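Q: Structure tokens for this one, please.
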Amino acid sequence: MALIQTENLTKIYGNGETAVTALDRVSMKVNPGEFVAVMGPSGCGKSTLLHLLGGLDRPSGGTVTVDGTALADMKDDDLAKLRRRRIGFVFQFYNLIPVLDAAENAALPVTLDGVNPVEAKTRAIAWLEKFGLGGRLKNRPDQLSGGQQQRVAIARALVADPALILADEPTGNLDTRAADEIAALLARVSKEFGRAVVMVTHDPRIAAYAGRIIFLKDGAVVDETILERTSGDNSKILADKMRTFGE
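A: Here is the predicted structure, written as tokens:
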């Protein structure tokens, strides 16, 4: 069974003549452990899709199901619990707490969820060490590079042991080297740690780390590509497709 699935997912902002269709009847599936990138021109609905998948917004039509449960059928408290425990979020701008160190930032979701602080910190440190930050546990965000801050943010997303990671332009604020490191880390999260990852990106080089690419245009799915690791320069293939779809 798919971990997350949408059927005719639609999001409309406004009413009447001013209505804007941000997402237009999108149907997709993501399986456990799969790494999927969502690409398309600016304003095509990429971030809207991610917000609906994560239950951060309600659709105008269609359904989102996680582990077979429709998000629309869930009470607000249950939906909040699902977001805390089954879904991890990674954003472009890290969103770390400036006065907390790396371990405290990574532990924050489970600390707020009532996990014993010692246990929460132990979990956080384990993820940070996996990501090469064992020597940076006491550093605050302003003492870390952008790539290191994003590693802390990914550890924070994983600390509750979620099945799904939603990443919205996670490399958009990084230089080329750090961006490649973060994309490779997300691929590792999928392959080695068995989490499903859905990543929004406009960068073909970063999208090429995924196994499947969904292209959106004007809120609708216009193409789906499965990447073969032996097929040559996947980033060039994706760049060509982006030009075809208007960016």
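A few notes: The two ends are 34 Å apart (CA to CA). The chain has one domain: 32-45+86-244.
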